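Dear U.,

For the methods section draft, I wanted the exact inputs and outputs in one place so we can describe them consistently. I've listed the two proteins in the order they'll appear in the manuscript figures. Please don't edit the token lines directly; just add comments below if something needs changing.

First protein:
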Amino acid sequence: MNKKSLAGLIGIASLASWNIQAHEAGDFIVRAGAASVNPSEDSGIIQPTVVSLNGQVSIDSDTQLGLTFTYMLTDNWGVELLASTPFTHTVDFAGDLSGSGSIATAKHLPPTLSAQYFFNTESNIDPYVGVGVNYLMLLETESTANGRAVLDTVGTGGNYSIDADDSVGLTFQAGVDINLSDRLMFNAAIWKMDIGTTIEVAKTLRVDLEIDPWVYMLGFGYKF
């Protein structure tokens, strides 16, 4: 076999190996990777305003293990459940209380159920969009040592309780699967979530907080 024939066969083999079948009805896809919740919060004013005329709160980001489970109803339509290990965020004073440090930590899960549409690109790349509903499930909220010290200055009588409401909201999503084989894929996804809660501190102070995070996930998937 001459060099040209060998090169031609190698080229054909390469093209064939790259012709991986797109998602189909009945496929079950499990994805796992690093998921980051990045709030784009909008805080109300801490009530009552006797504490501060423009006291607010802010919340930081966190990264955990993200998991998604997709079942393909048709070649183009699927339904996905987003899950994760618990996220933990620190809630800080903001507004004219900025610089006062943290007030609490909050641990939560953001399970999300979405309907997805996969575009037929006739290639190894399967982009998709989705819309669904998320549920902010607060597992634990507690005041920090700094928060307790600040509350002592306010005079809450040693009451350091932190309560926050669960939340239900819409979620919009976009993502892409890059198929590495008939089973294995690389995945990148982004969600915009409508999440809001009311935080009550020491049964005395209240503040409304729109969290509305962007959620990013990079990982790998396996198709059954």
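Second protein (the one for the lower panel):
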Amino acid sequence: MEGRLFTFLGSIGGHGQDWILLSHLVLTIGIVFLIARAATKRLQLVPCGTQNVMEAYISGVIAMGADTMGEANARRFLPLIGTLGLVIFVANMTGIFPGFESATANINLTLSLAIIVFAYYNYVGIKENGFVNYFKHFMGPMPVLAPLMFPIEIISHFSRIVSLSFRLFGSIRGDEMFLMVLLMLVPWFVPLAGFFMLTAFGVLQAFIFMILTYVYIAGSVMMAEEDH
């Protein structure tokens, strides 16, 4: 088991890192699809149950983005941000239940999500502003500063991949390791504090990932407004 706690999915395909990640990622995506199905199966004018919860979630995501890029743009990028937030939240919460692990406790998943965000906001920025104007913005307000500003901006943008991926991975993985130690030392009521911490940080990290994605996209598509 390579020092891992017992997992139900690990008992099926082994406790190797690849299988644990793949199986729990499939589980996470399956749960997300079930939530979406339950919320949209019987849409009502006056929402209730899962539909009510999901509508509140969508309204919250839009409100979050409206402060950064305006409501119109927040709605435009809602599918990406809302999906990322829901997948990350469900993955984080999976690790709370004994016998399961969080897929986001694996750097391979968090790095993949960060690369998706990085590629997407740069693609949108180039599409909205044009290739030349987009990278021209990296050169700073004065041409004389371009040789200094351009490499700094490039490094800054690539560092966002590291920031997004390691922040999420470090928080969730650290909480799981803390919980594992508590379960080994005092396997009764004391680990409840670890479960609470994992829940709180799971919600927080999903929120941070979403808001940072909104900020990065806003910075790439609103360059013309910044210039004016």
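Candidate sentences for the figure legend, describing the second protein: The longest helix spans residues 146-185. Residues 10-227 form one domain.

Thanks,
Y.
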